[in-house]
Amino acid sequence: MSLFAILVLPLFAALVSWLPLGRRLAPAATLGISVITLILAVTSALRVAGGAPVVALRNWLELDGLGALVLVLVAVVAATAALFSWGYIAREPDARHLRRYYANYNLFVWAMLTVPLLVEPALVWTAVELTTIFGVYLVAFDDTPEAVEAAWKYSILTIMGGAVALLGFIVLYPATRLGDAPFTWAGLVVLAPKVSAHLLISAFVLILVGFGAKTGLVPLHTWLPDAHSQAPSPICALLSGVKTTVVLYVILRMLPILNASGRIDVDRWAVVVGLISVGIAAFLILQVTDYKRLFAFSTVEHMGIILTAAGLGGASAHYGAVYQILNHALTKSFCFFAAGSVLLAVKTRQIADVRGLLRTSPATGAALLFGGIAIAGAPPLAVFLSEFSILRAGVAARQYLATGLLAAFVVIAFFGILGHLNRMVFGQPAPGADGAAVRLPLSCGVTLVLAGAPIVVLGVYMPPPLHRLLEAAAQSLAR
Amino acid sequence: MGSFAPALASLNGLAAGVFLLSAFGLLATRQMQGCLRFFRLQSLALVASIVLIAIGMQVPDLLVVAFLDLAIKPLLIPWLLRRQVPGEVFQRREIDQVLNIPSSLLIALVLTLVAYFLAEILPPASGAVDSINVPIGLAGLLLGVFTLAVRREAVPQLIGIFAIENASLLAGVAIAPRLPLVAEMAFPFDMLIVALVIGILTRITHERVGTTEVGALRSLREETSR
Questions:
Q1: Rounded Cα–Cα distance for residues A50 and B218 (Å)
Q2: Is residue A231 within 8 Å of A241, Cβ to Cβ?
Q3: Which of A111, A195, A451, B97 has the fewest CB atoms within 10 Å around its CB?
Q4: Is B31 on the interface with A (CB under 8 A)?
């Protein structure tokens, strides 16, 4: 029942936001409904963590471990980003523009929530495509030439990716003629041993190329830093924190299917593609000039880390991959909230123009520094733990080359991120900089506290239900 | 049905031929209007092929898909684009292209050959009627990606995307004619939303940047420290 509710509520919120009934209604409805959706998602995920997959409509609407994890993460970031939007978007003078923002926001969130709920691959393709399309308006929201340019690159590259991936999904379908299993993720795992290796590989390559463009895997990542730097910050949090993860989730779904066939070493593909993304992104991080692009490249890096971890194989590497999905979504959304607060305070995206942030605007400076430390993977915060568990699993699996490269790239990215942020946060502010005059909206401050808390807590304490959910998610990768 | 199969197969071959020809046309034409016309022709060829497969393989579901495709691709999408994109864009005769046309066509020819060999590794078509669809669909896909890469104007780029989707479907109906109807119906509707959203985006681009020559959009780069 709650799965159906999750499918309907955001649509309802979109409708309400679109109605011209005052400036406060749209943000209130969006925030209220995203909190309700979050509660429903968490209760469903707890049932999954308890050991029983939730089935709402057999072979169409089901929730297993990996799906539940992604669902909860989308719901969490949707709720925190709605709270952040409250204060962040309020400066928008045009009420119609504001309503359209929230209507699109809810449609975007709705599309992302449907991806992990659906288990029929062809419908999953449609849902992923809708996440892209509903994101276009949000990326272009600021209506500057740069934002429009970013939206254009985003839509052309990612929709092209979708059109290529479509053939991959169709190619999978004839597998259902070979046995008595439905056309679902689980059904395909059952059928895989009977399907020809050519068919599986061609489907996988088409989906990897197509959806790789949407996830921001190198070399089709070029749209990502543009879109993730030009969109309003709450949207960046959604795009970077969960949208990329939702698409990567679909690619990860293909791994157990190819592994089940027993004749294809798909894990090696995943490791190679993943490492290329981590490596290129790590070096690109060194030369960014815009702090929102910095976090965007870090997203490319983390998508690569997750894919590499999933490809290292074995239960502990799979656990590391889903653990990284969790920590990345929480931390990266926090980073963009912090970056958005800095942007409100200093009104420039250029790293070189920001100096001594801790003096001019202590709260935002501290938040940015904390976000940077957390996403770079410094102990004892959450991302450090998941990256460490991935490296340990890699060593245990005797994949020394891949693990060594991964560790080297992660360290390069670590110093890249902290080097840039160090210059922004510390030092003497430029004369004439009066960032302190800008007060951070209350809702933005509250969001920073709410979104930052889990990063600290997960660094020192893992709640048992969450641990069970992660184990269930790792199992969906293994099969 | 058996006695009709050869006739259906050659008719389908004709449709697939027209499909491939219009994929080349999309690449070679220098006029915005021509681009739209070739897209219409390609969509009609796709619809014809779907109908022939529906008859040949006796899958009535596909007739619904064909009808939806007929309504949306050659009719609704061009109409939507006409409404949203400023008319001035369509008056333009010359389309900027990264490569000149003869060399693009040569590359396209090579891509078509590559597609024929690549089609070997894809699953074969499910019936006798539609064996031509898989290689031609794959060729259309590669040509669509290539068109997208060399075009520098917004509308032809968008049409390139639709051409890729058309090609995926052309191969798709042959590989999996019995895909669930819900899913097959979702595809054309999806393209309709794409046309709607990108059409609006094209208009905004025209207003903000003053051109729809998206190849000229170069302000977001690492080197430019504004």
A1: 51
A2: no
A3: B97
A4: no
Separation in Å, CA A143 to CA A89, A230, A233, A292, B13? 14, 10, 14, 18, 47
Report pLDDT digits (tens) over B30-74: 788 888 899 999 999 999 999 998 888 888 888 988 998 899 888
* Cβ pair B209:A148 closer than 8 A: yes
Q: Which residues of A touch B219 (CB under 8 A)?
A: 145-146, 149
The nearest CA of chain A is from the CA of B7 a distance in Å of: 26
Min Cα distance B13 → chain A (Å) is: 20
Token pair 């979104």 in the structure block, residue: A451
Asked if A199 has any chain B CB less than 8 Å from its own CB, the reply is yes
- Cβ-defined contact of A152 to B225 (cutoff 8 Å): no
Phi, psi values for residue B43, rounded to 5°: -65, -40
A149 vs B contacts (CB less than 8 Å): 205, 209, 214, 217, 219-220
Residue among B123, B184, B198 minimizing CB distance to A171: B123
C-beta separation of B104 from B112 below 8 A: no
- Burial class of residue A228 in the structure, from the number of CB atoms within 10 Å of its CB (0-12 exposed, 13-18 middle, 19+ buried): buried
Mutual orientation of helices A442-460 and A65-88 as an angle, nearest 10°? 150
> Any CB–CB contact under 8 A between A146 and chain B?
yes
Token pair of A376, please?
A: 């770079």
The whole-angstrom distance between B203's CA and the closest CA on chain A is 10
Q: How many CA atoms, within 13 angstroms, populate the side-chain half-sphere of residue A365?
A: 19
Instruction: Using an 8 Å CB-CB cutoff, list chain A residues near B167.
Output: 167
* Total number of residues shown for chain B: 226
The domain limits of chain A are 2-478
Write down the H helix ranges in A22-94.
Answer: 25-49, 65-88
Across the interface, do A166 and B171 touch by the CB < 8 Å criterion?
A: no
Q: B151 Cβ partners below 8 Å, 6+ apart?
A: B95, B96, B97, B98, B157, B160, B215
Q: Which chain B residues in 163-222 lie under 8 Å from chain A, judged by CB atoms?
A: 164-165, 167-169, 171-172, 175-176, 178-180, 182-184, 186-187, 190, 193-194, 197-198, 200-201, 204-205, 208-209, 214, 217, 219-220, 222
The 10 Å Cβ neighbour count of residue A362 is 12
Q: Find the residue in A nearest to B143 (Cα).
A: A164
CB-based contact, B154 to chain A, within 8 Å: yes
- What ipTM does this complex have? 0.86
Walk along chain A (479 residues) and give the pLDDT tens digit of each residue: 788 999 999 999 999 999 888 788 889 999 999 999 999 999 999 999 988 788 888 888 999 899 999 999 999 999 999 999 998 888 777 888 889 999 999 999 999 999 999 999 989 999 999 999 999 889 988 888 888 888 888 988 898 899 889 888 988 888 888 888 888 999 999 998 888 888 888 899 999 999 999 999 988 888 899 998 889 999 999 999 999 999 999 999 999 999 988 888 889 999 999 999 999 999 999 988 889 999 999 999 999 999 999 999 889 999 999 999 999 999 999 999 999 999 988 888 888 888 888 888 888 999 999 999 999 988 889 999 999 999 999 999 888 999 999 999 999 999 999 999 988 888 777 766 554 556 788 889 899 999 999 999 998 999 999 999 999 999 988 86
Please spell the DSSP secondary structure of B96-136, one letter per residue. Answer: -BSS-HHHHHHHHHHHHHHHHHHTTTSPPPSSSTTTTHHHH
- The vertex-B8 CA angle with B2 and B14, nearest 5°, equals 160
Q: Best interface-test mutation with A: which of B162, B197, B221, B226 has the largest number of A CBs within 10 A?
A: B197
